Amino acid sequence: MFLTGEFSKIARVSKRSLQYYDEIGLMTPAHVDPQTGYRYYSAQQLPRLNRILALKDLGLTLKQIAQLLENDVSYEDINGMLMMQKLELEKRLADDLERLRRIESRLGRTQVNVPDIVVKSLPALDILSTNHFCLSSQDGLQFVAYLMKKLPPVVGNGKLGHFLALSDEDGYKAEHVDLEFAFFIEDKVPDSITIEDDIALRTRTLPAVEMMATAVHVGHPTTSHSTYGALGHWIESNHYRIVGQQREIFIELPHPDKPNSGAIEIQFPVEKIDSPSFLLTE
What we know:
The protein is α+β, with helices and mostly antiparallel strands.
């Protein structure tokens, strides 16, 4: 099982939303520790949460969603409603594109192939990084594209490897989030670099990770819900727990004219546990 913040990252839903769904009885934690009050969620709750999010994206109120869930609305019914909404969204302005991607991701959740989960042992790795406050996911991707264009000519071609994003947030947020954007260092670079617009980058070392659970998501980063969900299922069912900072490695950036392009490797440092996770403390 996962603490609220950990489940928030796996489910790609804010902690505030999870807490509110608990308050109104729409989706309660799988377990609440009677001594500490810590709330724990299970990967087995992801299907119900995805029903809630899919219906919410259709514009239904939480009260209406609760009534539908009481009648055990099927995935087929939800997919049918989502497809109708998809056709409407395609006629709207470009500002609705990201919303459309989220709906397509929820729509396809039961149809995609389960990604392979690979456990890796990673050495300490040097990165060149900077922090950026992202107003939205699109803002973050635009900043990444800017760095990839401006930085190589300054440090020298061939000195930087894949791009990655790291977050210290306790839970998932789709917008207004402070992220660390970085490049793996393939060759020696200065300890600090400043590029246009006074953007400062510095070198640091990511710690070694004995066990990193990883999965590759092919497609736009905003449609990665199913891959995160698969990782959550694997971590829980194989009796692991998350023990460090999550990473997203950008293998291929999405092309502006190809909404379904791109590929990222999602990484969670984990360790094996011997006892049920609801007995663990923070």
